Amino acid sequence: MESQRKFTRTFSFEFFPPQTPMGVEKLRITRQQLARLNPKFFSVTFGAGGSTQNRTLETVLEIQDEGYAEAAPHLSCIGSTSENIRSQLRTYSDRGISCLVALRGDIPSGMAQPGEFRYAAELVEFIRKEFGNSFHIDVAAYPECHPQANSYQDDLLNFKRKIEAGANSAITQYFYNADAYFKFLDACEIANINIPIVPGIMPINKFTRLARFSDACGAEIPRWLRKKMEGYGNDSASIRAYGLDVVTDLCSQLLDSGAPGLHFYTMNSSDLTTIIWDRLGLQEETELTN
Prior knowledge:
Elements: E1 10-15, H1 21-35, E2 41-44, H2 53-66, E3 70-76, H3 82-94, E4 99-103, H4 120-131, E5 136-141, H5 152-165, E6 169-174, H6 178-190, E7 197-201, H7 207-217, H8 223-231, H9 236-256, E8 261-265, H10 271-280, H11 283-289
Parallel strand pairs: 1-2, 1-8, 2-3, 3-4, 4-5, 5-6, 6-7, 7-8
Helix pairs in contact: 3-4, 4-5, 9-10
């Protein structure tokens, strides 16, 4: 854990490409509100199998043109070809985008083959081969182990392959047990992995939706948190209030222990993230570092 203290803290926010004109306008407002927090970058997700490719591109280019923060598009292995990836990278490079998030991605139901790139390490290697050091590359990390990994050790080795292929830093899957992150960093230090590993943070709003999403992506909701939330039933105000307390405390633990920043999964909304940010008193720090 101590190895992370040497890295400059970075704060960032993640969006998904909106599907409707109303969603597009809502996300513009969200970006304006979060831009006041001086983030390092805004990242934009890439749907399973490239299902949002055009909307991801449109959103990324709009973010870059706004100038609030650097845009960091997600790139996914699943459903991609070398020519397709090369074309996207050329577009991003021509538009002055220099940050990427390279992922394996999820295989959509019914897709038999993942595509030309099987793993994120192969995608990172391709980016470096084609574009050298033109891009800062983030990759994913899984403190609680990727749900499809054969073992914790295999997952750690897969993570190390991404670093050896040329990744600069990593963003974790969200979690609510700080010890999982601390133990993961200890394992990374033993494996001589020496890059910033930024915790991914998911604010809690509607718990039933979070539970379904977590079950699907393999993120663990601790039993104490699940039972407490289930006990509130349909009391959305209590769920929201308790969720804010839990996530704020988690962020405080992480930063106090030396985490090199935070990456918020915003779900295209600014309210919960902004409240947590204010409670942590981060505004002055980001003004100094960005």
